[in-house]
Design a protein that fits this description.
By secondary structure, the chain is mainly α. It has 19 helices and four strands. The two termini are about 30 Å apart.
Length: about 450
């Protein structure tokens, strides 16, 4: 690691996979999905379309849901919930208007593939292009649902074997829960495979650990995921009793949920932009070097993810890392290079307390203010996010030009593990840096 590398983590973290190549896991997922798609289409063409009205209705529903897909916002795992719910409902369809459904697994795959291809055409004309990995995951998860469900509920005699009542609701819900978990496992696998940086001679560095990525994916299921699963079950049950006329009625709640969820995500994104703009005030005023807050936040999120933080706790950590130096605005004379890590402990605590007071006035979550206030305390008295912010901030402060450099900065942190820095946090930071910095983690 060169002395100037700490000031250019964005260039390192932004290293992309070599053009024209894809990781083996990504190719495997795409290949399996392509084989399933070809098998489903071939079998359907050979046997003919069964119940064409039902197939057309669900195909149009999937197309409309995919066309209603908006640009995915940060934290949004499913930008096309209506299309996902329609595909799952068709896979869970055992009856139509009281009569047994006979479409089978192969036709579920064929309708899904044709609908996705039809929805891709307008998006390709607009320049959006298809999202290949997300479509491949959709094919795999819907196929898994259909393979598990259709042999149990499809065909004549279903009622004799399973009866009515709660079994028709509990089993599909349980199946969709397992499907959602499998999709999260698959998404984490793809994200880990694609997090490996590749240079002209192949892979460079090690991938992001799988455990944190899986926790991140599972935490993302809490959003609109349950609404998609519940709507898929309700659609299947409604069509089973009332016929295809139930589809447009049952789509309305999910559409309203989608709009509400997107508003929530948009508000959260606006909040983050506001916090990032406020964090830049110390750079604009000359108290901290350019990009310091962004570098600390990116490293803190990478370290926090490996230490098991996810969801709201990871967001609190990111916000606190962005605003950790806001207390420096109270100083009459700026600290040289903004390096608060070289100040006496009492002065560090005073700046941290002033920063926490400023954060409380912004209306941000009180937990963010607590992390900012306690970042200068001995690590045994700190919550985990404050321990991470303190260690990462010290590393970025000390590794800058004119100070001790990246390698010596890590050694300084290791020498301070007796009181100031938690050893586990320092070791995790070293692992992240050994991989070249915080890598972007795609979600499909």
């Amino acid at each position: 690691m060169t002395p100037g590398s700490a000031r250019r983590p964005r260039a390192v973290a932004g290293a992309r996979i070599r053009r024209g190549t894809s990781p083996p896991a990504v190719l495997a997922v795409r290949g399996v999905a392509a084989v399933l798609a070809l098998a489903g289409l071939g079998r359907t063409l050979h046997d003919g379309v069964r119940e064409p009205g039902t197939a057309l209705a669900f195909g149009l529903l999937i197309v409309v849901g995919e066309l209603a897909r908006w640009r995915a916002l940060p934290g949004e795992r499913e930008p096309a919930p209506l299309g996902a719910a329609g595909a799952l409902a068709y896979a869970l369809l055992g009856r139509v208007g009281g009569e047994p459904a006979t479409h089978g697994v192969h036709q579920v795959i064929a309708v899904l593939v044709v609908a996705q291809l039809a929805a891709c055409l307008p998006r390709a004309v607009r320049g959006g292009g298809p999202t290949v990995d997300r479509a491949a995951r959709r094919v795999l998860t819907v196929t898994f649902t259909a393979v598990c469900f259709q042999p149990l509920y499809g065909g004549v005699g279903t009622g004799d074997r399973f009866g009515g009542g709660p079994y028709h609701v509990l089993l599909p819900l349980l199946l969709l829960g397992v499907t959602a978990w499998c999709d999260a496992v698959l998404a984490a696998l793809l994200a880990r495979s694609r997090s490996v940086r590749r240079g002209p001679r192949g892979a460079v560095g090690s991938p992001v650990p799988y455990g944190p990525l899986l926790r991140d994916e599972l935490s993302g299921l809490v959003g609109i995921g349950p609404a998609v699963c519940a709507t898929g079950v309700v659609m299947a049950l409604g069509v089973a009793v009332a016929g295809l006329w139930a589809l447009p009625v049952l789509c309305v709640p999910l559409l309203l949920t989608q709009v509400s969820f997107r508003r929530f995500v948009a508000v959260r994104g606006t909040c983050r932009q506001t916090i990032a703009s406020l964090a830049r005030s110390t750079e604009i005023a000359g108290y901290t070097p350019p990009g310091h807050a962004r570098r600390v936040a990116a490293l803190c999120v990478a370290v926090g993810r490996e230490l098991g933080l996810a969801g709201r706790r990871l967001t609190v950590l990111e916000y606190a890392a962005l605003m950790h130096d806001i207390g420096q605005l109270s100083l009459v004379d700026p600290v040289p290079d903004g390096a608060t890590a070289v100040l006496p402990a009492a002065e560090q605590r005073r700046i941290a307390l002033l920063g926490g007071a400023v954060v409380r006035q912004t209306g941000v979550d009180a937990e963010v203010a607590v992390v900012v206030e306690r970042q200068a305390d001995p690590y045994r008295e700190q919550p985990l996010p404050a321990r991470i912010v303190r260690a990462v901030n010290a590393y970025d402060d000390l590794s800058g030009e004119g100070l001790i450099g990246p390698l010596d900065a890590l050694e300084h942190l290791r020498f301070g593990t007796g009181r100031d820095y938690q050893p586990e946090v320092v070791d995790t930071l070293a692992r992240v840096l050994a991989r070249g910095g915080p890598a972007p983690v795609p979600h499909g």
